[in-house]
Predict the 3D structure of the following.
Amino acid sequence: CSVCAVTEGDALGHRFDSYVCSVCGSASPDILAVYTADELVTALEKGGDIVLMADIPAGNYIESDAFFVTKDTVLDLNGHSISSEYGYIFLVTNNATLTICGDGVLDLDNNGNYGTSVSIVSGSTLMLFGGTLEGTLEVGGHCVMTGGKVMEMTDFYAESVTISGGELTSLLGFTDRNLAITGGTFGFDPSQFVPNGPYKIVCNSNEAY
């Protein structure tokens, strides 16, 4: 198209819906649109705003084959999933910040084996605003969680974790030294991590707080 002059008359411009022009099918030029694992690797090397445009099927991401985040990156899952059967999906290193937003799933079907959806190395940061993280979220740096769902969060010498929203089912290894909770829904009693102040724990059922 010539900026969507697909009918007679003057070009009216693209009409984007979920980052795709509803007239010509082009992806928005303001984002890095990713459809495949190879495209995701290339986009992560650049950093910036990345939008997942299709599901990325299972691969055996075992550290060297994981998706490395070495530059500040915003990843919009955009209703799609990234799957793995074993190992790691994302490794956040090099003091980078990975921000995850939008609906979608990091789908880790590990068949009983150890598996990590996101691993945050010392000095690096995860900002979690949305999405569902299956498997383990391994924190060795910083994590800020305001939304999304996490099946299990593990302390791997974490530097700091703050949780003000979202859902967390299981927590392993943390103390109030490196974790503060001011909001959210939990599958465990988070009392010891709640700072003094205008916060209270509400028990919704035998297993949810």
